[in-house]
User: What shape does this take?
Amino acid sequence: MLKIGCHLSITKGLLNAAKQITSINGNVFQYFSRSPQGFKAKPFDKEDYLKFKEYSKENELQTILCHAPYTLNCCSSKKEIRDLAKIMMKDDLDKLEQMNNVMYNFHPGAHTQQGVNTGIEQISECLNEIVNETTKTPILLELMAGKGSDIGRTFEEIKEIIDKVHFKDKIFVCLDTCHVFAANYDIVNHLDDVLEKFDKVIGINKLKAIHLNDSKMPLGSYKDRHAAIGEGYIGKQALINIVNHPLLKDLPFYLETPHEDLVGYKQEIKLFQDNYKY
Ligand code: FE
Ligand code: FE
Ligand code: ZN
Assistant: This one.
């Protein structure tokens, strides 16, 4: 069974989001842990979570992905921002540890003139303060398009971060198709080679989730501009190939394509389900 869904708002709670995803025939979804451009988070709603859990079981929902806000930056040159990132991550994880079947995804960060090495150092330091032997939520570093001073545009940078974390068995990777394409990994013409490289550098067993997006910008543009499926430079067929790749077919796929409402997502989910060969 293909695990596919999209990004949803949980302002009305997890149960509501779960109902939304089943209404468009998806079985996974992603949500923001807190306001994406801000810092505010709602307290953990246990009652809503328990209802969500029950509903998920009945409807066979698969792994949910919680996305940290964009404002979170573990490697800012400003200490207040780095400290705030730790506080937010800790708080997010505290909630996720009370849940099952959920993973936590975050953008490694932007080193803001400090240099890549310092950035990598600070990101792993942040993870070392947050992750311990009891952490059960898988933590995913998202591969980035490489705009500005963003860290995580190469497999090597991600590998370096993971290597510096004490509990590296808790750290995984999320591959965003738009980002890696923009970062000059040709998943359109050389998918096998890209995955081979991923395996060589990071290890394919570290890949836990795919953000399924087309790209408004060409290969190697280093610009992060998501497009609807088939409306960008990656194209429908290449994305169908990704979903069907033997190394990827069992992973959860989360659409982060620009749509005004659920209808657009519903059509994309159907496209991939209709073209799933397993
Ligand atoms: Fe992201
Ligand atoms: Fe993404
Ligand atoms: Zn993006």
About this structure: Residues 3-274 form a domain with the TIM Barrel fold (CATH 3.20.20.150). The chain is about 35% helix and 15% strand.
